[in-house]
Amino acid sequence: MIEVSNLEKTYNDDGNETAALQDISFKIEKGEFVSIIGPSGSGKSTLLHILSFLDRPTAGRYAFFGKSIDDMTDIELARVRNKEMGFVFQSFNLLSRISVYENVEIPLIYSDIAISQRKKMVEDAVRSVGLEEKLYTEAGKLSGGQKQRVAIARALVNNPNVIFADEPTGNLDSKSGAQVMDILDNLNDKGHTIILVTHETYTAEFANRIIRLKDGLVESDAPVGKVRRSKGEFFK
Amino acid sequence: MKIKDSLKSAVGIFQHGKLRSALTMLGIVIGIASVIILMSIGQSAQDYILNQVQSVGSNLVFIIPGGSTNGRLSSPAASQGIVITSLRQQDIDALKREPSIDAAVPQVRGQADVVYGDNDVRVTYEGATADFFSVLNYKTQKGYPFVKDDVDSSNHVAVIGSALAETLFGQNINPINKSIRLGNSTFRIVGVLEKKGTGAFGIDQDNLVLIPITVAQGEMLGINYFQSIVIQANAAYDVNFVKSRITSVMRQNHGITDPNKDDFTIETQEDILAVLGSITSVMTLFLAAIASISLVVGGIGIMNIMLVSVVERTREIGLRKAVGATENDILQQFLVESVTLTFLGGVIGVAFGALIVGAAYLILTNFISGWSFELPLSAVFLAVLVSTITGMVFGIYPARQAARKNPIEALRYE
């Protein structure tokens, strides 16, 4: 599904070139749960931005479902993001002035899905994160854990192939974090590809594969060898 | 993104910040209300003036002493205070012989104090012939107009305006057959005019005193010429033909061979209507143009608030782009917000302006009879259209700023 080879990203700041990513190559198959980990400045966020079409690489090749992003216009990239990708952010990025329903509906208003079909899709997504009783509550009035569950509902409302989660538990207490990881785990079980960026090893180990970055290079790319962590272990 | 979604989002934004939206709209509301008020009152004033000119009578042609440089009410000598004595009785006699002319009414006027008992009022008096009343559409509500014999015999009779009658006699005394002093002469009142309001030429017809022209010329003014002549054209003839006939009669009478040396100016009602109409139109447009400056100020206010809104909603823009919004989607959303804001401002401005115009109508009708309530539909459409365009013009820059935001930087914005 995702194939990157010799990917590079260089930032040019007043003539000073900084290599954020160098010679990154890997494949991610549909249905995988992959964690990208590494210390601050290792390039994991940059890699996530490129994988999720929010940024373009300086060099190298990135193919999504076999199609190179070099051949896609910005509008096409936006369309693919809308149809195939879901996003969960560390800071939730909910619009606090509007309801849970309206927040979850946002990706659908940029799709060609008819307005009449949206209601059921939003209700299904909110139900899947267990917040159906909060459907018409203003998002700003929810707790942190509830906000992140709404963000997950928003990420999966368009039934995407891949969900990108950028430090999804970073702003949550351990109980809420466990619930969020549990939901992501279940979504993976239902066939969604999950790509998780985190600096927490124990969160990363919910995945079945960990790509470890250091100084913009892939330090290691290996499956999680043993039994995946359970929710109970998250609390430890 | 569908327009319906953009509208829903815009309404949500306004509901969330009602006071801010209301204050942002205020500039547009004031601008549009000003335009509506000025255009409506301008239209009412225009209609009022035109009605006054038409109410003077029908098929009228006016002869004013003195030539004009281009024949279009430019600056006849008489209107500049220069006394010209060229209009005489022989002109009236010759004009009356023309088959295309029904009546030729000479006019003189002056100012004097009118006294009855303790009441003393400065008024304009007008010397009139018997047919003055029918030609210029003056009707009496009490008594009768004076007749040809009164004019020929220089009888001291007078017909007075309704407001003057009330000033001099109050409501309980019947002015008919009462004697008043006008200047140094005494006149018996034979009639009181119907209420008519200020005339097209600025004379308050309700405070007028009409006396036989022979008395006005001989005793009051000591002149033997006329200050103007009003012609009633025969309705069977084209008024321009009548105008050319009058010109020819007057030139023959005055021995004029060079058309550039005419010692008179001829104006038809249409000429006067056209000039007055164009003056009031220009004034209305001029005032509306001034009022539209406030629209520009309102538009700048909209742009300012939209720019602030773009900054405040940077993360929202980043999120929307991340989940699939294109630059055009974001541009559309912010443009719809600014246009909705100015459109609503326009609608409220029209309603507010209409209220003011209505209130002005209620007040002005007490002072000016014949004042009408005018809210031209074209002004309403124009106002709403202009307010919408204002939203587009002043909303496009902030919308482009929003659309061009880098999603990664926008999502990181604190």
Q: Your description of this structure?
A:
The complex is a heterodimer of chains A (236) and B (414). Chain A is α/β, with parallel strands linked by helices and 236 residues long. Chain A contains 8 helices and 10 strands. Chain A has helices spanning 44-51, 74-84, 100-109, 115-128, 144-156, 174-189, 201-204, 231-234, and strands at 2-13, 16-28, 33-37, 59-64, 67-68, 85-89, 162-166, 193-198, 209-214, 217-223. In chain A, a hairpin with a 2-residue loop joins strand 9 and strand 10. In chain A, helix 4 (115-128) packs across helix 5 and helix 5 runs parallel beside helix 6 (174-189). By secondary structure, chain B is α+β, with helices and mostly antiparallel strands. Chain B folds into 2 domains: 3-53 and 274-412, no CATH class; 101-230, no CATH class. In chain B, 55% of the residues lie in helices and 16% in strands. Chain B has a 6-stranded mixed barrel. In chain B, helix 9 (269-312) packs parallel to helix 12 (377-403).
Put the structure in a nutshell:
The complex is a heterodimer of chains A (236) and B (414). Chain A is of the alpha/beta class and 236 residues long.
Tell me the total number of β-strands of chain B: 10
The CATH architecture of chain A is 3-Layer(aba) Sandwich
Query: Roughly what fraction of the amino acids of chain B lie in strands?
Result: 15-25%
- Rg over CA atoms of chain B: 32 Å
Shape of chain B: elongated
> Could you give a short account of the major beta sheet of chain A?
6 strands, mixed
Q: Low-confidence parts of chain A lasting 5 or more residues at pLDDT below 50?
A: none
CATH C-level class of chain A? Alpha Beta
User: What is the fold-level CATH name, i.e. the topology of chain A?
Assistant: Rossmann fold
Give the largest interface. Answer: A-B, 26 and 23 residues
Q: Report the C-alpha radius of gyration of chain A, rounded.
A: 18 Å
Major β-sheet annotation of chain B: 6 strands, mixed, barrel
